[in-house]
Structures
1.
Amino acid sequence: MKLTERMATFLDEKDELLSPQEIEEEKKWETEFQKRRKELEREKLKLEERKRQSCSRLEELNNRWRNIELRRTSRSNMRRTATTLSSDETTAPALPERGSTVL
């Protein structure tokens, strides 16, 4: 006997083992199972989309924060350089003007 014939025989035997009410109950459960499976698949897709959006938002915020920190560091370095240059000018000895004599 081929496998398909054995399966058909098995299915026929299974149908004979169940009463019409049990067969109807099996169909209801199968329908409910399919409905819940589809619902779970939809929920999974929603969650994946939310996760993708959250990751995208987090990456955007990280980039913004990194840029803010870079600008802050750059400004701080510019201030430090400007302060260093201005203090160098005030502490440097004054050179005599041309033509004047130093006593």
2.
Amino acid sequence: MRPRAPLAPPLTRLRIRTHAAVLLRSFALQGSWNYRTLIGTGFAFALLPALRTLFRADPARLHDAARRHTALFNSHPYLAPIALAVVARLEAEGESPAVIDRFKTAVRGSLGSLGDRLVWAGWRPVCLLAALAALFAGAPWYAALLGFLLLYNAGHLATRIWGYRIGLHEGKHVGERLRHSRLAHAQHALNTAGAFLVGLLLPFAAAGAAFAPLPVPPPSAPAVALATLAAALGTRFGTAVRLPAALALAALAAIGIALRFAA
């Protein structure tokens, strides 16, 4: 793995509070989403504190830089801080606008697809399934909801902060760093966790736990066995087996709920 690049001397012109301002503004990245530039306007808005610091003495360059960064750009919102940090570093190092634009063009698709797989198809479903498992096991609905919000946003905030830091340290070589990061392992772990939780939830659903929460011991033994099987299938064979297995088990759960109502 390539060692992290040291921060370039020009980057010391950006203080910690400037980086904090850029990171905080990244939460509003999609506030000006439109079909022409997607999140380009929001990207320029988030980057503006850094641009003001770098070009304070040259209003013409500041105006030009702000205008350039309103161009078309897209990314998953949670991974956009990676691009923001890299661009802030490139601007501080005095890279040409052409190099910066090429970098933004190169990463906009990959950051979007990577974030979709990691967050929308991985982290969010796992957090939701964990909250449902707690609810079916007898936790109050408000405790399950609060647990979901805390767990999900812990991962959300950690991803934003990690992304900004790695972008700042790696600069335009961040793509290589991402290829050797733990993101691929994280996606695999989330798939396994999702399969496990699906297996854990289905016996509860089949017994009508959505309407009358069940005590965890001893009925949890079949759930653990089924969860282990689901995790094994998901880990060994992937979506090709996990999806039809989940559909078959869901059908059994629906039959169980129907029989409960009939009784």
3.
Amino acid sequence: MISIRTATTLIVIVSLANLLWMKITGEKRTVPNNASDDQLLTPVLETSHSFIQPVSNLEYLGASNHVTLGRSKGFHLDEHGQNATVGLVTAFSSNHLIESINLFKNLVDKNFTGPIVVYLMRRNDEESSPTDQEMDIVHKLLQVDALNMIVYEHVEPEEYLTYCFKTRVVQRFLSLYQEKLSSFVWADTSGKIRNGNNLEENANRLLQQQVHLSATLRGAVLLKNTHPLTFQYLGVDRFKYNRTDEYSASHFWVNLEERLGLDQVIKPWIDCGVNHCTECMAPPGSKKWPEKHELKPEDYPYEKHRQDQSVLSIFIADFVANSSKSHFKRGFGMECSRNKGDSKQLEYQLEYLDTMLQAQSESEATKIEN
């Protein structure tokens, strides 16, 4: 029988061996904070993994569960609507109201005219309907002529809203709109279109180039930001990713006509979060900000777990390594700009919406007079 001292010694030896292995094969590169996507290189992985298989029989949560809170008069992408080049899907909750308004303001400022599908998040143990403040914001946004949007309610248990909500929202979105769009963008409420970029023009260019998937590198090492049990569940050697950069799950673009990116990245990612949330995407012991005493020596160099972003990065890294170079492009004109703000800033944002609607009303009145 192995003593506690012997077991501890073995754990330390394994950890030191892992550290030596990383020293030999190369550690994290130093990346400047202002590095562009083209400056960040993801090394090609050596092998293709069996988990990258087309997932064609995903069971969707179902369109029947969609509760529509409202739609703008310009939104026509329904059962009888027209196909669009690119749609944008996002989700927000009471915790991210300021960021949400910033996103929609940015879409107006950058002249995005595509369909926008919004999911208002709510735990299933909350009140039976959204708050008055949330509905007030939704009502105002739906009146903005420049936003062609529809808003659904998305009710989930807390564990899914915390760890796996993004995969579940994207799945519900695809169940309704996959056949009605040429491509789509997922954007967190913190997302914004970069200056000098037009999202629809960029999407058209990517479609013409037959790019299947586009995402942005973060410059963080995937191995450090992914719990070992996630790698174990997916059946891959985590140390193959010791020089692989993480991709941002805050915004990504997917081609719905050329579907390799959809089948080999997005659908397996959805399957991980929807069907195996607490085993694959958020395994036991995984935390975004674990305490030092919660980190096991044998898990080195793991530091924190990024849930949906960690899993998405694994699938993208393998897709990049094992498909044509032209099928993936880094960056498509969006970036992350977090700004949770405070109650005063929220008040300012609501005043901004009122001002926008007032100007819109006055413009319409002038047109009628003329």
4.
Amino acid sequence: MSELTEFEWHKLNDDMKLEVIKRSSYLTRCRLRKCSKSDKSLVDRVPISEIEIGFAEDEYRHTEDSKPYLMVHDAVNDENWSYNKGDDKDRIADFMRIFNNRNTLVRRVYFDFFSDDSNSCPFFSKLLTELDAHPKCIIQSEHFDWRCHQASEQYLLQVLEKFDSHNLKKISLNGIISEEKVKALSETDQWKNTSKFDIATSPSFGELDNDVKVKSEYIQHAENVHMKNYRESDRNVASFFMLDVDQEYFEWKDVLLLFDVPVTNVSVASESSTTHTQRFEMSTRGRVLVVELSNYGVKGCVCREEQIDEDFNRVFNEED
């Protein structure tokens, strides 16, 4: 509140207060909510953006009674806030309050539970119970980031379906996830409307990007999970995926056997390591999915039908 004292907050009219709230950080808004009931109502009227919010386990304390943190990063003001006081229901309520305003759109929502204990399961059960009890609370986020141990997999599909599919642009799955679960995810509206994917099958700390390493066995299912999904969705030009195998070599020819179109190699100027490039028609007229196979993995990109070289190489050269 110190940055607002010069305004004599209690003397401002509601219009002025709203302008101040719009320019205030997430932490300042939390403090303003405590001033009065009317201020609380005003703060909740202003949508929140440019933050990342999530739940993460206590990395220093893994016990039966350890509680996950609710964590918030305000990107504009570069502020971080976290707490695990009270019970799970209190933190879940604070999380849901952000999305009670339907105009709120945050950058990223993440769930970070990598330990192999079962503490995350009761938490996700409580989270879904609260979300089911408040169906108007839809999670509005550009990025869904799941970094959880296999014990939490049973909740993955239900949690993803609580996100607004129209605003979701990126899905990150960084954990131990079964083939069956990935196939189920690929049938959701959230997955179909997303333009970027990060899929890894082992824990890794730090920022993910679109060039991720996966087990070679997963590549065998790339046709079903990625290519088919891209071909049947109305995706923008330059939407792409990259899957690199976690070994020096894999049998890329096995992937060719999965294609439901004649295997035809097309010419696209790219790396010398490329062994096969396949073009797929898409549901959207004038766009094609171009997929490259190499000894190191699979990558695909949505291109304009008449500008394949330009679109494909622009995307992957920029990523490099």
